[in-house]
Amino acid sequence: MADTNDIKRYRQNLTAEREAIALYGRLTEAEKNPDLASIYRKLVETERKHSEFWIDRLKEAGAPIPEFRPGWRTRIFGWLAYRFGPAFILPTIASIEKSAASGYAGQPDAESANMPADEKSHARVFGYLATTSRGMQGSDLARFEGRHRASGGNALRAAVLGANDGLVSVFCLVMGVAGAGVSSSNILVTGLAGMIAGALSMALGEWLSVQSSRELYQHQLDVEKHELATIPEEEKEELGLIYQAKGIDAETARKLADRLISDPSTALDTLAREELGIDPDELGGSAWEAAFTSFALFMVGAIIPVVPYVFFTGMTGVIVSAAFSTVGLFIIGAIITLMTGRNPIASGLRQVLFGLVTATVTFSIGHFIGAVAI
User: Fold this and answer.
1) First vs last Cα of the chain: how many Å apart?
2) Banded model confidence at residue 133, pLDDT cuts 50, 70, 90
3) What is the pTM of this model?
4) Which of 183, 196, 316, 355 is deepest in the core (most CB within 10 A)?
5) Cα-Cα-Cα-Cα dihedral of 72, 75, 78, 83, to 10°?
6) Closest CA to 114 of 25, 53, 38
7) How far is the C-alpha of 253 from the C-alpha of 212, rounded, in Å?
8) Which of 17, 242, 40 is nearest to 124 (CA)?
């Protein structure tokens, strides 16, 4: 027998489902692409089934069915979808759906009706739609026209920034120590220590980042594998919706999803790539490879302001270190233009300006601390 808390929960769940029906209905009306509109209609049907489920629970408990009027957020989203198109609000809806995907967790009656799986499926569908239904962006157009130099861009960007971190941080460190008036041997030891410590820190941070991502991806794959084994029909329907979002007609998408899900050897791989955007063979790459790469890139930049102190002492060492660092900063600034398309000389000079200003600040602080200490 349902108690007061159960009835309250039934009403809250019913209201949430009705809000979703109203919002998805507005998206359906506003969507001009018939394939996308059919996806929204499918989502409405699912939410309507959920709504009927909670209405039945309230009736069984002898509780009245509350009247419904869409909330302010649903009305605003509906107006924005009608005025600017569904794509305008999809990223926001995707974020909300992702947060609400676990709303039915711990509710046995909802779990028995597979509602948590449905809600997670909806969150993934909206997440996919948010990244695929905004139309062609400028970067996409440039890539198709052969003018966008983005091939390997992420790796290049990581390499440049890693070397820049090493150069700027250690340059400022040795300038700060030099400003304090310590001996050249102490500056060299400090620079080497900072170089190694910074590289190790970068390597550890990169290892933790990649390893955490790998563990998260593996957990998502385990969940997907479990859902594939326990609720294959829901997974097949979700995959069909994703293919529809890619522009495949409903019938072809349904047949394609049916064929892929029916083959156990490819089902999980397909779901991982299409739903989660995960390459199950890579899982985001090797954490150790990322760590070693990060370590090496930091060292490449950090060695530049340190190596002059191996050969020079006193103010000569400071000047040569600053000169080496200036050249390094200019080169890094110029390399960045491979990604930005800006003038390499202007970008290089800007990098030099920022680097020298920060080094001057640390040198001045070091000089002040050295004077006070004396």
Assistant:
1) 82
2) low
3) 0.52
4) 355
5) -100
6) 53
7) 34
8) 242
